[in-house]
Amino acid sequence: MPKLTINDIEVEVEPGTSILQAAEQIGIEIPRFCYHDRLSVPANCRMCLVEVSPGPPKPAASCAMACGEGMVVKTDSDMVKQARKGVMEMLLINHPLDCPICDQGGECDLQDQAVAYGYDRSRYHENKRAVKDKELGPLVNTVMTRCINCTRCVRFAEEIAGTPVLGQFNRGEEAEIGTFIDQVVDTELSGNMVDICPVGALTSKPYQFKARSWELRKTDTIDVHDAVGCNIRVDARGREVMRVLPRLHEEINEEWINDRSRFSYDGLSKARLDRPYIRDEKTGVMSESSWDEAFAVIKSKLAKVKGSEIAGLAGDLVSVEEMYAFKDFLHGLGSKDMDCRTDGSMIDPRVRGGYVMNSGIEAIEEADAILLVGVNPRYEGTLVDTRIRKAVRENGAKVALVGEACDLTYRYEHVGDSPADLEKLAKARSGFAKILKDAKKPVMIVGSGAYARADGAAVQALCHAAAEKLKVVRKDWNGFNVLQNAASRVGGLDIGFVPAKEGRGLAHILAGTKDGSVKAMFLLGADEFNARAEIGWKCFTVYVGHHGDHGAERADVILPSAAYTEQDGLYVNAEGRPQLARAAVTPPGEARSGWSIFRALSAVLGKALSYDTLAQLREEMVKHYPHLELIDERGANEWAVFDSKAKVSGDVFALPVRNFYLTNAICRASDTMRKCVGAFHASEVLEAAE
Amino acid sequence: MKKPFELHADYQPESFEFTKAYQKKIKDVIALYPPGRQQSAVMPLLDLAQRQVGEEGAKATPVYGGWIPRAAMDHIAEILDMPAVKVYEVATFYSMYNLAPVGKHLVQICTTTPCWLNGSDGVVKTCKDKLGIQMNETTEDGQFTIMEVECLGACVNAPMVQINDDYYEDLTPETMAELIDILGQDMKPTVGSQKGRACSMAASGPTVMLEGAKKAKVV
Question: pTM of the predicted model, to two decimals?
Fold first, then answer.
């Protein structure tokens, strides 16, 4: 462990630590542009120069110099100050003075560091160079003249996103960043390049010229577009969400988020349900109404319906509290028919280890063998995919896939595409089965789509048995992961939003609406199935949700609720970690938070729920489900192997996410997401049209 | 200097393959690097691609010189198992890789200080006048391209030009014109000093280390 002195402070660091990192450990700031914690170190911006002795009598780049025993480092000597000023002056030779019209203004590294470390004027009066802007798709706007060639985006595209299409071309004054050949950067993580760009060269296209960073109200919350539970910050002005940024969480998303989480926010202000609607029985036309009228209609309709003839379905984006109140509400009416698995999943809710990621997301990067089953992690959990990529890049982890082949950007062995192939693999003694058995930390990731089929229960039993056989589950290590697709799913399964004993699940409920055994249906944000076709036309349907999407289209009464940015709510992510989402803005019009709608309606129906505030609801909820109180904690999960008597069919595993950019009601309302489909999924759109 | 090139131009071939003879050379080059580090061979491979194109160009009508088509860069990326963009980066960085067709004789005129002090302006003017082209242009018959380069390290014999792989030194406008004439007739001019001195020895013969000079048979 080398010991060194930085600005007269002694510090002992791990071998291999750079001077810059060592200084950071003791709270000394060293300015930098090209250096980034999570990327490789090119040492090309020269901003992090420090004085090091012993050594040559010139400043050294602290990001690339490892700490040595007995080094004496100065970060604030005259030589260092002079060097920084010189570097800054050079960087600004060609950087335009367009801060007033630059979106990065106010949160720009170059701006801040020029003020802190630069001269107050330039000695260069020559014309500045201009660089042609690059077309990188509908999300990332480029103003390449502002680029200082730090190559962070180049390294990000290659190392984190796995799409090495960016590069630095030519040299000297002509050096520029680009793709060389005209192509979009086809990654689900492109928005992060906007974040890591230290200047205004890469900015967000949808956010272009919309707001200034200092006008925005910032709220720390949780993303709900997939089950990863990325930590995000919602920036709002008034009651409009202006942008979404990632927030650091080392165990989940590090500091990245995917493009859907980041750019779908414009969908939050489109196609919104902002007041109750009632469908006229004779004409079939929806008309606006008041809450009282809507409740009255529901009351009169339910008067003739027995409790056993009522059913409820909860969708993908709803919080745990909403589902808890919904469940209580249905119980109060005497219904046992409810389901949160609207994707048709047969997943067993009794064993928690069977529906969450047991290894956790962070541990995946330590894995040395990874088996993917019926999943495209790139689309179903983009930030899980970055961990897999990290494992492949840094540990040389081997990856195999049972399921539909897809472009994962890293190499994998395609060992089959149906459950039968998984069965074969589990029995095998050589090939990838041996790699898994011999691995120190084997990981198996099963997609939620693998269980969303008629023989889902048998597939689940098979997966558990295979995990045991392939030694993915060991005494001190459980590498069996189910990668859920929907933010609400783990929470819903946790609180048992599934058919009670003798209750009916999704398939039977939907069948019941057609044969008349289900006469009234409540949908809580359930948009991921074709409600118009699947729910019998005689069934009285109430939709509680925030977007006019599939569910609202079919509804007889619509009760508007708040979206994830508009209410406090608990979400349990795919690894079983409860996290709190916070309201960033108020819901539009007369919309209310979901749980309070059920509370109010229950009183109208004479079965009032026992809580009046969200705090009371939570208090009661954690009495039944104590793990939900442990925010941001991930406990151990029980594990079981099921009897696998049932036969699995030979059908191939189908991927649940075909179109990454249109997976839920918010995305479908978003113009930005539609543009992404055109840019990144153009071939598929054409196929669909044919 | 930024190199002019177009990716979708008519002259870009659709595909590129190394010939048998070159495939053997490639194999030898890659074998120089340890396994897993074959990407290090990217620069020699780019050079080989340029040479192969140049050999084909010498037989074509009109003739052209060695350059690297985009298809060749993609092909090299495939051979070395690396992202194509990394090959583009290298190819655009170095001025000795031509990314667009050039003349059969690529005349690179040094105009850096020592050559300039010794009259490189005259050499440039001769080239321009005699060939009727400007910098970075190619004559219509595909024989000559002239371009300006920075110091090529032959300052003692300034001014100088590099034509394809050879240096021509101690130039005057007259000897430059002669060079162009000889090359234009597909003959090979004397390489090196055009004043007739050996290497960078003083014009009057060696002044020091006379014994050694005798042994080396330069006097």
Answer: 0.92
